[in-house]
Amino acid sequence: MPVEEALERLLALAEAAPISETEEVELADAEGRVLAQDLFASVDLPPWPNSAMDGYALRLADWHGEPLPVSQRIFAGHAPAPLQPGTCARIFTGAPLPEGADCVEMQENAEVLDDGRVRFVEALAPHQNVRPQGQETRAGEQVMNAGTLLGPIELGLAATLGHGHLRVRRRVRVAVLSTGDELVEPGLPLGPGQIYNSNRRLLVSWLQRMGCEVIDAGILADDLALTRQCLANLGDVDLILSTGGVSVGEADYLGMALREAGELALWKLAIKPGKPLTFGHFRGVPVIGLPGNPASTLVTFALLTRPYLLRRLGVQQVAPLRFDVPAGFDWPKPGNRREYLRARIEGGQVRIYSNQSSGVLRSAAWAEGLVEVREGTTVSPGDSVTFIPFSELLG
Ligand code: AMP
Ligand code: MG
């Protein structure tokens, strides 16, 4: 199954199972959440014309080159009186322009005479250094759409509009399962044949960063009865996300237990790393089974699971930003799966980690993102390749 098709199917499944409940949260608690309302401006921004500089406000039509007396001082946060004809006003950045003024000269171009009058040295133009009312937004204008992922910039904009609370989608509850008899939690001693469980930490941290509520179901032994029991105890979640046990090997107890309780599809994806991926339902709860090799887990989470989760929250823009960079490597053998190479940009070209094995997570820690090499293509140094930065996928 081509990557595009898998993504399309997952997004369709996500749209069929939206997390539609919402809650009202304080702006301070809205980081990483998904906006559930369209946001409108209740006032013009800025609400009144104001000064972009520290300087002097005047009315250009009334000025003929002579020095002007200063009739008032206007600080940011204070309401001015109308400008007295034949005068200027001392004004500071962000302060409202007095009625009648239409121009601000910066203080660097103004000379204060001994008698207190101000002489303007340069030619003046109408509206210079004035930020007009409503230049950013007009009252009633829609400024953000429902489905926007809220980061620091969006929260800053919501604050500009005066919103102290926002209505957001509730958090997605994701149960994370790591399958495999060989797995041991870091910090504990390793027995014969055992390895440390890396996928759990990778996924739990990533999901938390995405604003999900994570139910960490721990390590699931390769045992059918224990697997059944673990699934039955998961409680109320929106997604069961497992790793490992999805290759068609013999120890596919999760697959067996899921097939007993519902349906399960095994997709053979044209993606490398990460060929096998399962999707199914357990008692109505969607299940995504990611491959167990850490780099495969990473790639299939980043490119398929992350967009699926965001779409369930109503986010439309789920495709990460990607851009073309010149290759600083050779990839001479065309593959029949789409490859996502762990890569970083150095000196204006992209380099790949020396070992691209799906078991090597260090490749991804070294890397800054993924280079996409399409099926049936090769890469020579200098060719343009597509790069997807991790910063996009982790945001
Ligand atoms: P499986 O799909 O269960 O056959 O796993 C494929 C490979 O990924 C095997 O080498 C597993 O030991 C490894 N693996 C599976 N789960 C994890 C995990 N949580 N952390 C690290 N490696 C894993
Ligand atoms: Mg296994």
Automatic annotation (TrEMBL):
It catalyses: adenylyl-molybdopterin + molybdate = Mo-molybdopterin + AMP + H(+). Transmembrane segments: none annotated. Its EC number is 2.10.1.1. It comes from the Bacteria. The keyword Disulfide bond does not apply. InterPro entries: MoaB/Mog-like_dom_sf, MoaB/Mog_dom, MoCF_biosynth_CS, MoeA-like, MoeA_C_domain_IV, MoeA_C_domain_IV_sf, MoeA_linker/N, MoeA_linker/N_sf. Keywords: Magnesium, Metal-binding, Molybdenum, Molybdenum cofactor biosynthesis, Transferase. Its cofactor is Mg(2+). Residues 175-311 form the MoaB/Mog domain. Pathway: Cofactor biosynthesis; molybdopterin biosynthesis. Belongs to the MoeA family. NCBIfam families: Glp_gephyrin, molyb_syn. This is Molybdopterin molybdenumtransferase. It comes from Pseudomonas machongensis. The lineage of its organism: Bacteria, Pseudomonadati, Pseudomonadota, Gammaproteobacteria, Pseudomonadales.
